[in-house]
User: Fold NAD(P)H-dependent oxidoreductase from Flavobacterium polysaccharolyticum.
Amino acid sequence: MRQITIISSSVREGRKSHNVSLYFQNYLIENKLATASIIDLKEYNFPIFEGTFKTLINPAENVLEFVAKIKSSDGIIIVTPEYNGSYPASLKNAIDLLYEEWKHKPIAIATVSSGPFGGSQALVALQFTLWKMMAWTIPAMFSVPSVDKAYDENGKAMDKLNSDKLAAIFITELLWCIEADRAPQHQQSL
Assistant:
């Protein structure tokens, strides 16, 4: 079974993007598409790193756990809010901690906002950062405008039919990339 890790990137009080992370975890498990776990950056409470994982002399236990989860994942879903036209510093800090672990990793980006645009500027900023890390970002998008009205604190979609329809397209694209990444001809070309 595929292992998908969902990164819940907001560490703010009252965050609503975490509800979308819970939705994806529930969706993947209920539809038996993958095992799914959430990396909640709020729980990790990382310090501001002064270097990459490879340069850390005595990395903390939670850093080692984070690195292991990213490495062992077949694919990643990043759920991020848009803050001031970009994504949270907590996510940038976690991404910059690693380098080779992101290379060719299939990554799907879900963005949320409290306004009508669903985090479109955060998507562009995050995609550019991940491209620089040589990650494989999928072309499908999952954007959630007015997130506070779209999902409850348990990850339940207020419009389940529409959310599941959009999630099916989004997840199908991620799973396709995971399978393509596993293909023998792809592995030989690396």
